[in-house]
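Input record, target 12 of the design panel.
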């Protein structure tokens, strides 16, 4: 099978399968994963693992574009206007999900390092499913505003948590290490990634002053994101940097300080979508059902921990920020969906920590199928009970 034919199978089957499954009201992301699962190593083996791994660079490209877009969605003006209550909910639901997932997996017998990696994946919420339900219900109100803020910001928190935990696990995997050296390693990993992102963002802002057309802006963005963040993949004298954190910082600076944004975001969405489809299908193809069954209790601990952490975290954040009663009571129900960046981080973690790869993929993808099905249902329940529909 040549690579062109391979990509043809992935894209066409992903499109066709998700289209057919959409008739059953199954979200597109879940459809891509299911198609990949059927064609992958667990069932038909049309997409062999070796060929799948050779296409990792396409997955990394999609992730960089997603991270850049996440950073671009964080506006200084919006962050100032959100107020204490919304920011409190966003940070609390992300951190509580991380803590509860880690505790849930440990209580079910999970390995400490694996639990740290996977817990960092679970803090993010999939924006697509949540936003789709809110638009469908024509929802408006304090709960709706809070949910939109959460799905827009907790991906950024998730990338940061993953960067920290990945550096921590990498350092611990090297054997005994002094706490001071461990702290310094994590500090260097995160700081260098942020600095690269700032430099890349400044370069982009400067380039926007020189160009005149949308297509030039799109090329400048894609070229800069790849050129600045490409060197961050791999190991550099024992340090492992975070290209996603760097790309996110680039997006933030570009979005907030560029004199002109042109139509970059819409163009980037169209350009990137085929790559998003490819990485969801390839992710599903990597899922080995036997590992998921073997990790039944640990995967269950992850799922229960995430649901509990999201709900309790949103409630605690609402209480601390003095949010309206409907936010404290129902926000946690609207933050269940998990896909997007969580799956991307899982694939990146699998490449970086091959000893945990089957377990990471099994837990992340196995639970995503569940959350993408029940998530929209719980979001609809929350917004309906809050009486914010049809507004």
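The sequence produced for target 12 reads:
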């Amino acid at each position: 099978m040549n690579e062109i034919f391979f990509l043809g199978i992935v894209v066409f089957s992903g499109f066709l399968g998700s289209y057919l499954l959409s008739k059953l009201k199954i979200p597109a992301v879940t459809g891509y994963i299911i198609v990949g699962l059927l064609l992958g190593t667990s069932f038909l083996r049309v997409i062999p693992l070796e060929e799948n791994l050779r296409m990792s660079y396409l997955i990394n490209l999609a992730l960089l574009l997603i991270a850049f877009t996440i950073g671009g969605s964080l506006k200084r003006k919006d962050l100032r206007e959100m107020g204490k209550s919304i920011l409190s909910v966003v940070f609390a639901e992300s951190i509580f999900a991380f803590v509860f997932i880690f505790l849930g997996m440990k209580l079910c017998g999970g390995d400490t390092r694996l639990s740290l990696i996977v817990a960092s994946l679970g803090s993010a919420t999939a924006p697509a499913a949540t936003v789709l339900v809110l638009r469908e219900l024509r929802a408006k109100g304090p709960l709706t505003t809070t949910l939109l803020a959460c799905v827009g910001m907790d991906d950024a928190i998730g990338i940061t948590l993953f960067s920290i935990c990945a550096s921590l696990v990498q350092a611990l995997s090297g054997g005994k290490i002094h706490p001071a050296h461990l702290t310094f390693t994590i500090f260097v990993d995160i700081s260098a990634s942020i600095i690269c992102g700032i430099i890349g963002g400044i370069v982009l802002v400067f380039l926007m002053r020189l160009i005149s057309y949308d297509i030039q802006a799109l090329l400048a963005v894609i070229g800069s994101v790849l050129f600045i963040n490409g060197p961050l993949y791999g190991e550099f004298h024992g340090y492992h940097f975070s290209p996603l954190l760097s790309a996110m910082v680039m997006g933030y600076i570009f979005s907030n300080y560029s004199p002109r944004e042109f139509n970059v975001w819409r163009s980037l969405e169209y350009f990137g979508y085929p790559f998003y489809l490819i990485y969801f299908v390839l992710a599903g193809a990597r899922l080995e059902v036997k590992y998921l069954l073997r990790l039944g209790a640990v995967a269950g601990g992850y799922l229960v921990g995430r649901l509990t952490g999201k709900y309790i975290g949103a409630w605690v954040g609402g209480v601390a920020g003095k949010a309206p009663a409907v936010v404290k009571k129902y926000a946690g129900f609207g933050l269940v969906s998990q896909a997007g960046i969580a799956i991307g981080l899982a694939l990146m973690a699998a490449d970086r920590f091959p000893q945990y790869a089957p377990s990471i993929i099994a837990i992340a993808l196995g639970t995503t199928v569940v959350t993408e099905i029940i998530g929209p249902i719980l979001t609809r329940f929350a917004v309906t009970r809050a009486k914010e529909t049809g507004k």
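Residues 3-385 form a domain with the Na+/H+ antiporter like fold fold (CATH 1.20.1530.20).
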